[in-house]
Amino acid sequence: MCEEHEDERINIYCLRCEAPTCSLCKVFGAHKDCEVAPLPAVYQRQKSELSDGIAMLVAGNDRIQAIITQMEEICRTIEENGRRQKQHVGLRFDSLCSILEERKKELLQSIAREQEAKVQRVRGLIRQYGDHLEASSKLVETAIQAMEEPQMAVYLQHSKELLKK
User: Where's it found, cell-wise (predicted)?
Assistant: First the structure.
């Protein structure tokens, strides 16, 4: 019912004001200079527009849901690829570390062998020079004793041999 004309039914639609109204409002009231249309026609047109809008929203929502589903699958793929890449990198580094550890072990063994060979060589030289030093020291001692020999004949008998030594 019309708010201004309580006994009148709303039966037309004011196109300019975009409001439903009664025939008395069109003839005598606020809408006398406005263009109007039959209420059922406007009702059907707006209902059709709203229905089309709902259909567009539903279709849009379906597309958005499909995109969300696709993006969720992309996220799962990214996570799986990341997990595989991390695992691959871990395995490669473990392999490289193993190779490096083996190489380190070989190099340390090589250095140890070389060190031992050089130490043995130097110790051999130490023994050789030690033996030479001992012999030389005995020779010096013997020569000093010979120098103290008071008899010339005895000295001369031993001095030639000492000089050779």
Answer: Nucleus
